[in-house]
Design a protein that fits this description.
The protein is of the alpha/beta class. It is built from 13 helices and 14 strands. The chain folds into three domains: about 160 residues, P-loop containing nucleotide triphosphate hydrolases (Rossmann fold, 3-Layer(aba) Sandwich); about 80 residues, Rossmann fold, CATH 3.40.50; about 110 residues, Rossmann fold, CATH 3.40.50. The strands form three sheets. A six-stranded mixed sheet has the order 2-3-1-4-5-6, with helices on both faces. Strands 8-7-9-10 form a four-stranded parallel sheet, sandwiched between helices. Helix 11 runs parallel beside helix 13. About 5% of the residues have low confidence.
Length: about 400
């Protein structure tokens, strides 16, 4: 993906599900018009989920997810099914592929799960070029799943346009509606970005939340001034009037707050992404759990990025340091990264999620839902730092 592309995390995720050898990979190739997925006559060819970023006319940037058959068998098959389940957590719209075989219980169970999660589900009857009684098969699928299937032939490229139309019809109501800066920034505002270029920002590059926020501000026709923390005073003096909004890196929240003009709203990139990707309301309610932590408590810090530990790392170094300074050195803290996230969260007294710029919103909300169902408080890097700095009630959240 180039710098000109929409980041994968901001794309609509369309998952392709079904039994082994139902034609899921062939269907993806037909939709994309490319040999994106490996196709074979042998069942179980797709092992790990394959993510294909593309543009679909009328839909825009999206990701097609080719998954392993949920009916895979054996020890390796169980691992493949587990990875398919993880892919389902990222799915905004599900395409369920049938090939004319008898509907099995697991198919009904998967479709019911998608419906219960309010994930739009589209049934696709593939291999129509090989089927003799399409009408009765379609009726059978509809009777057993509650969804009338779209009849296609991936091999003959027949009916593929109907899938695109169905996807557009099933777009989530809030698709493309949420913005990073929400109601904090108005069109034409003057915005000051305070961006310390620490070790996490590789030389010559900005980190992704900064890039995406800057792009949105330009789309809003804002006047944008950027500065590092040590140049904050000079940046403020360079403006004729105070900026309407100051957006800072969370790790310098307190420093910027102490210097900001009274009339300027203050927030951070992490707080903005908490609302953009997650559940800011749950994060702000949960952060008070810090007051109940003791040295016998256990905290989970979840980072979307996967990289080697860095000396200035905010999640691995700075937040643990702030927490232990407040709670005690013996406070137990676990760290997970990437898609690693425990199924059982009940051993933790607090979960702290990063801004999650690398994840799509559906996946982040699945984590929040899991924490909520298990009655475990869950917050966010920026919210936690603002709380520990004593300024959470003085910054702009939305």
């Amino acid at each position: 993906m180039s710098l000109n592309d929409t980041p994968r995390a901001n794309r609509l995720h369309i998952g392709i599900f079904g039994k082994r050898n139902s034609g899921k990979s062939s269907l993806i190739n037909a939709i994309t018009g490319q040999d994106t997925a490996l196709v074979s006559e042998y069942a179980g060819t797709t092992a790990d989920p394959v993510y294909k970023s593309m543009e679909i006319h009328g839909i825009g940037p999206c990701v097609l997810i080719d998954t392993a058959g949920f009916d895979d068998e054996g020890e390796i098959g169980e691992l493949r099914v587990l990875r398919t389940q993880k892919a389902a957590l990222k799915t905004d719209i599900a395409l369920f592929v049938f090939d004319g075989d008898k509907v099995i219980d697991s198919e009904r169970e998967w479709i019911e799960k998608f419906k219960n999660k309010n994930i739009p589900t589209i049934a696709v009857l593939n291999k129509s070029d090989l089927l003799s009684d399409i009408e009765s098969i379609s009726k059978y699928i509809e009777n057993n799943t509650g969804i009338k299937p779209i009849v296609v032939s991936a091999k003959e490229k027949a009916g593929i346009g109907q899938i695109r139309t169905a996807i557009m019809r099933h777009l989530p109501e809030d698709y493309d509606a949420k913005t990073i800066t929400g109601g904090i920034v108005n069109n034409g505002d003057t915005v000051l970005l305070v961006m310390p270029q620490d070790i996490q920002a590789p030389r010559g590059r900005l980190i992704l939340p900064q890039v995406q926020t800057l792009r949105e501000l330009l789309d809003k026709k804002c006047l944008v001034l950027s500065a590092t923390t040590d140049k904050l005073d000079e940046a403020l003096r360079a403006l004729v009037k105070p900026p309407a909004v100051i957006i800072t890196d969370s790790q310098v929240f307190k420093t910027v707050y102490e210097k900001k003009p009274e009339e300027s709203k203050l927030t951070s990139f992490s707080v903005l992404f908490a609302g953009y990707k997650g559940d800011l309301d749950y994060y702000t309610k949960s952060v008070a759990a810090i007051d109940n932590l003791t040295e016998d408590s256990k905290v989970l810090i979840a980072e979307a990025c996967t990289h080697a530990p860095l000396e200035e790392d905010i999640g691995r170094e700075k937040i643990p340091m702030l927490l232990r300074k407040r709670i005690g050195e013996k406070l137990r803290i676990d760290m997970v990264s990437g898609t690693d996230f425990p199924d059982d969260l009940t051993e933790y007294d607090l979960i702290i999620q990063c801004g999650a710029c690398m994840f799509n919103r559906k996946y982040v909300l699945s984590r929040v839902e899991r924490a909520y169902e298990q009655k475990v408080p869950m917050s966010n890097y920026g919210v936690v730092i603002a709380y520990l700095s004593g300024i959470l009630g003085k910054i702009s959240l939305n």
